[in-house]
# Entry
Amino acid sequence: MDTNGIIDTVKLTITNNTAAEVSLYWTLDLGKNFPSQWRTQICDFNLCYDYNVRQQSPNKPNKLAAGATNKTFSFYLTDSFNYEFIDTVYIVLYTDKTFKDTLQVIPILIGGCNVMSHTFNVSLNEVVLQPNPSFDGSFEIRGDNDFDR
# Structure
C-alpha cells in the first residue's frame, strides 16, 4: 500500500466449517464520528479495492471451499493521524450478492481500546479477529508478522 499516512491493519481469518463451498460478500459501514480525511481499504479473497470503497463488487464473490481457511481478508486504515476520537466501523458479511442476507457483523473499534481480539461463532463459519489485546495502556494492532504501535 502506498501512502504517506499511518497504516493500521486488521486481518481477518475466516474459516468455512461446513461441508460445502460458501460465497461471501461484504460492505463497510463507517461510524458517525469517522473523520472524512481518513482513508480505508479492504483486501478480500480476490483483490484489494481502491480507497474508501464501501462494498465489494457483487460479481466477484469471495468463495471459500468446505473446511478451508483464508487469511487474506484485511481492513486498512490510512492517514489516520491528528484526530482523537473513538468510533466503530463495521464489516458486514453477507451470503448473497444483493447484500440482504447478513451472515455476520464484525465491529472494529478505532481510536483506542483494551480488547481487539474476539472470536465469532457463526452457524456456517468461524470468524476470528486478530490482534490480541494490549494491557499496557497503548493501542496495538498486530497481524501476522506486522506490528504497529
About this structure: Residues 8-148 form a domain with the Immunoglobulin-like fold (CATH 2.60.40). The chain has one domain: 8-148. The chain is about 0% helix and 45% strand. Residues 94 and 101 are 5 Å apart (CA to CA).
